[in-house]
Fold this sequence. Notes:
By secondary structure, the protein is of the alpha+beta class. It has one domain. 19% of the residues lie in helices and 32% in strands. The protein contains three helices and seven strands. A hairpin with a 6-residue loop joins strand 1 (8-15) and strand 2.
Amino acid sequence: MDRFADGMIARGPTLAADRATWTGSVHIVDLPSAEAAHRFVEREPYNCAGLYEEHLIRRFDNLLGRTMWEFPEAPDEPRFLVIAHAQAEAGENAPAVPLPDVSLPRDCLIVHGELLSPDGARRVGVVLALHAPTRQAVDTLLGSGRARLDEHLDVQVLDWEFGGRR
């Protein structure tokens, strides 16, 4: 993975509620094409070891314009990953979903961006990585934005932590 370090925006494991058990992994990497993204997935060590049942490739529009390593170090608050993605029944050819403005204080946002279809032609979701004291605090931060996200998107709030070397 070190060969991708220059393009790495964020990475790290998703965690169970105990914050010790890994449930998956996220890599947000600036790559030149969908083919390059598929090659990245093929080379990802945990994927090579057969640990993932599935993976999802999406284009990412980095709305904050920074990496997780540029985020000012926060107190020892937990980190969370919010993935709001087009509902599965909509399928790959569904129209672009309307994305509400999820305005959160910049000092709690680690990464924020829109998810696009692999060809970049339509919006299919949004990703927020943030720090907050509890999952309930995340729900409070999202507030009415969460309700608007839920209208058109499947929303997951995952415990998450920084991963990888830099």
